[in-house]
Structure formats: structure tokens, C-alpha cells
Amino acid sequence: MLRIYGSAKSRTIRVLWMAGELGLTYDHKDWLPRSPETRTPEFRALNPNGRVPTIDDDGFVLSESMAINFYLAKKHRSPLFPSDPKHEALVLQWSLWETDRLDRQIVDYVRHTKALPEAERKPEIAEAAWKEVVPAFDVLETALAKSAWLAGPAFSVADLNVAAALYRALTIELGKWPHIQAWLNRCWERPAAKRARAMREK
Questions:
Q1: Which of 6, 61, 134, 173 is 20 to 30 A away from residue 167, measured at CA?
Q2: Is the pTM of the predicted complex or chain greater than 0.90?
């Protein structure tokens, strides 16, 4: 059986969303990042970094949410992982792009403008993060103006990976980027996305 370690309040939301898209049955260890459970010798034997998400798929152990989603989609022969090598390359391009251009930046911006208690917010961190978010959003907007999806004619793991990372952008005014807004809504309206979001917000 597939076991997924990690809370939906972490990057594990990507993996839970993917598992939902694939209709997989799994055992879920709902552990937050840096929780006591992630510091045990048993978990460190699975992931020496002590990070979530991690999966154990019948003895095959894998960490890093992007890699996990690539693996699950390919293993289950899902159309979410395109067979066309050009579309596959776009899946990799956009997933890797997100980890560099938006992942930490969007987290820092939302934390220091909305999520943290006001006394803990640091405007200088929010401002620096936003300066990186804006050009990244501009790039994404340009791509989505040309195509409804990031890696071919249909929703794919590229859209899932990037949209999951932009969960926090659901609370941001995106009027300047209408194609991102429409795309993000399309992604998060999917039934599996709604279930993953409900797990995060419960």
C-alpha cells in the first residue's frame, strides 16, 4: 500500500492532490513539517532530511513533492504525465521553474502580509519577495495567454504542481494577471483539488 507522510498544510498538498486525481488508496500520516514525528529514528531512516512529503510505496521510499508526483503519474500510466516528449519536457520545465521562481517567494510574501500575526510580520521580507513574484507572474501570465494549460492541450502534472504551490495566491489580488486567475480557478475547481484543499483548511 502507498503511505503518504506529511500534512496538507505543507507541500504534501501536491501529493494528496495527485493521489486524488489518480484515485489511489493510501495510508496518510498527517504530520506537519518539523513535527516530533519527523524527528524519530524511524522516520529519519526513510528520509534522513526529516522532511515531508515522503512516500513509502510498497517499500519504495521517495521524497520531494515534485519527484513524487512525477513517479505516481508515470507509474499509474496517467495522462496527467504526457507521453509526448515535448509535453513531458514542458512538465519538467514548469515544475522546476516553480521551485526556483515562486515557491519560497510566494510563501514569504503571504506570511509577511497575511498569515503571520501582525507583530511577527516583516514588511521588508514581504517587499523583497513581491519584487520576485511580480516578474514570475508576468512570465506565467504570458504563457497562459497562449495556452489554457502549461504542458499541452490538457491539464497535466505541470499544472497541478504549479497550481498547488500557488495555493497561497488564492488570497492575492490577481487582477493584473487575468489568465493566471482563470487558470488557477480551473485547477482548484477540480474535484481532487477541492478534496486536497478541504484537508488543508479543516
A1: 61
A2: yes
